[in-house]
């Protein structure tokens, strides 16, 4: 009997080719599009190829028809609201910069989708992410960087569990983006040249306005201050600022000023120099390890502190039960609370954590 795999069809070229490749490999493939936030009568602007609007569902239907596979739409709005939108708003209100895609991957695209698919008899779920899943000699499952580093998405997937990894297929990770588009064109897949999705799917541009409308919280203005506490001007609310920001401050300073800290308790945004943006040490919690069960003693790895940053050498150790200390060989720019730090060992994901400070 063929193994059954449910592919998360987003309406984009990557998930479409994932479904095609798995069908070619002999799997019994079912396409599922996750309806995660939009209302039936409302579609998000999709000029950049968004993956969440109503036309994405129609694109996925067309792809499934061409591939000759069943296609279903599953409603995950409640999960997405609780695990992604509420988290996104809460983090900004607490002076942190969230990464909603990481939360969505772990708690919606995997936790919720996987459970529902296993309940209907699937053996695996599959996605169009640019990453590879490997099982190491120690028995643990982990992620390996995709063939094309320019598209590698392991950073945004570091939070997946061992159970989730063991029941997931990621065939796209073996190819470059150009190869994926070529496969799509040859297979007659109608979205072969659809642009990649960009930015956060549920906010068009104004994060602050979205958070105020979503939460009903009135964002109070406060003071810009220098590191010594001297008032430099007034900001329009802490949710509008993130570490490293230089533009949009509206300050007249003798030298370029950057956001170096956001203080929720004092409702202050601290402005400093470029040099003051650099940190040699960071701490992270909500740790999730992949290639190893935990960190014993000190361990040398490389780390990324944002999706598009390079891997840099560091030493990690557990400072407390769920608090990891990361000491970089060289100070890193704009370490941002709320973002992820992800550890690698020769292209393999060791694990990661949420940056606290």
Structure, described:
The protein has 357 residues and is an alpha/beta fold. The protein has helices spanning 13-24, 54-67, 77-93, 100-119, 162-166, 177-187, 207-215; strands at 4-8, 28-35, 71-75, 124-126, 131-135, 141-145, 168-169, 222-225, 231-235, 258-263, 268-272, 278-289, 299-304, 312-320, 323-333, 340-345, 348-355. The strands form four sheets. A six-stranded antiparallel barrel has the order 12-15-14-13-16-17. A five-stranded parallel beta sheet has the order 3-2-1-4-7, with helices on both faces. A four-stranded mixed beta sheet has the order 9-8-11-10, with no helix packed on it. Strand 5 (131-135) and strand 6 form a beta hairpin. The chain is globular, with a radius of gyration of 22 Å. It starts with a strand and ends with a strand. Disulfide bonds join 104-201.
Key words describing this protein structure:
ATP-binding; 17 strands; 29% strand; single chain; tRNA processing; five-stranded parallel sheet; 357 residues; 7 helices; six-stranded antiparallel β-barrel; alpha/beta
Strand arrangement in the largest pleated sheet: 12-15-14-13-16-17
Helix proportion: 10-25%
> Which residues form runs of ≥5 with pLDDT under 50?
40-51
Distance between the first and last residues' Cα: 51 Å
Assess the beta-strand content as a share of residues: 25-35%
Oligomer: single chain
* Shape category: globular
Number of helices: 7
GO cellular component, one term: cytoplasm
EC number: 2.8.1.13
Subcellular location: Cytoplasm
InterPro entries: MnmA-like (IPR004506), MnmA-like_C (IPR046885), MnmA-like_central (IPR046884), MnmA-like_central_sf (IPR023382), Rhodanese-like_dom (IPR001763), Rossmann-like_a/b/a_fold (IPR014729)
């Amino acid at each position: 009997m063929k193994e059954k795999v449910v592919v998360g069809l987003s309406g984009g070229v990557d998930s479409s080719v994932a479904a095609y490749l798995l069908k070619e490999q002999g799997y019994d493939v079912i396409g599922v599009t996750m309806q995660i936030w939009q209302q039936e009568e409302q579609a998000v602007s999709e000029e950049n190829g968004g993956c969440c609007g109503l036309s994405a569902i129609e694109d996925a239907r067309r792809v499934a028809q061409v591939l000759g596979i069943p296609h279903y739409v599953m409603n995950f709005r409640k999960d997405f609201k609780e695990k992604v939108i509420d988290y996104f708003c809460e983090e900004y209100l607490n002076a942190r910069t969230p990464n909603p895609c990481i939360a969505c991957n772990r708690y919606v695209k995997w936790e919720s989708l996987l459970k529902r698919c296993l309940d209907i008899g699937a053996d695996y779920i599959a996605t169009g992410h640019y990453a590879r899943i490997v099982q190491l000699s120690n028995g643990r499952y982990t992620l390996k960087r995709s063939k094309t580093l320019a598209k590698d998405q392991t950073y945004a997937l570091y939070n997946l569990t061992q159970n989730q990894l063991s029941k997931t297929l990621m065939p796209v990770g073996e190819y470059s983006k150009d190869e994926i588009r070529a496969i799509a064109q040859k297979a007659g897949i109608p979205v072969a040249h659809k642009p990649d999705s960009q930015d956060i799917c549920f906010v068009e541009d104004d994060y602050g306005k979205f958070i105020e409308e979503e939460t009903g919280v009135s964002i109070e203005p406060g003071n810009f201050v220098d590191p010594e506490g001297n008032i430099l001007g007034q900001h329009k609310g802490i949710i509008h600022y993130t570490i490293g920001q230089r533009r949009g401050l509206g300050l007249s300073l003798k030298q370029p000023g950057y956001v170096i800290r956001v203080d929720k308790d004092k409702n202050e945004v601290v402005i400093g120099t470029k040099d003051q943006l650099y940190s040699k040490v960071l701490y992270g919690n909500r740790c999730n390890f992949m290639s190893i069960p935990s960190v014993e003693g000190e361990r040398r790895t490389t780390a990324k502190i944002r999706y598009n940053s390079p891997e840099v050498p560091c030493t990690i150790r557990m400072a407390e039960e769920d608090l990891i200390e990361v000491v970089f060989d060289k100070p890193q720019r704009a370490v941002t609370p709320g973002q992820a730090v992800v550890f690698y060992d020769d292209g393999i994901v060791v694990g990661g954590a949420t940056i606290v400070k």
